[in-house]
Amino acid sequence: MEALLFLILLFPLAGGTLNAVAGMRLPRAISNGLAVSGVIASAVLTVWLWPLAEGDGTRVTLVSWLAAEDLHITFGILFDRLAAPMTLMVTMVSSLIHLYAVGYMKDDPDYARFFALMNFFVFAMLTIVLADNLLFLFLGWEGVGFCSYALIGFWYRERRNADAGRKAFLVTRVGDVFLMVAIVWLCSLVGTVSIPEINSRASGFDPMIVTVLALLLLGGAVGKSAQLPLSTWLPDAMAGPTPVSALIHAATMVTAGVYLLCRMFPLVSLSPTALAVISVVGAGTALYAASCALAQREIKRVLAYSTMSQVGFMFLGVGAGTVVGAMFHLLTHAFFKAVLFMGAGVIIHLMGNENDIFKMGGLRSKNPLLFWSFLAGAVCLAGVPLTSGFFSKDAILVADLALGTPLALVVDAAALAAALLTAIYTFRLVILVFAGSERTPVSHHSVSRVMLWTLPPLAILALFGGAIDLPHLWGGSEVLAHWLDGAAEAAEIPTTLEVEMAIVTFGLVLVGWLLAWRRYRPWHPPSTSIMSSFLLSGWRADRLVELAVLSPFRALTTFFSDGLDGVVIDGGLDRLARACRSGGELLRRMTTGRLSNYLAAMALGLLAILALFAARIWLAS
Amino acid sequence: VIVPFGHVLVFSAILFFLGLWCVLARRNLILILIGVEVMLNGVGLTLVGASALWGVVDGQVFVVFLMALTSAEVSISLAMVVYLKRRKGTLNPDEFDAMKG
Question: Residues of B numbered 34-73 whose beta carbons fall under 8 angstroms of chain A's beta carbons: which are they?
Answer without folding.
Answer: none
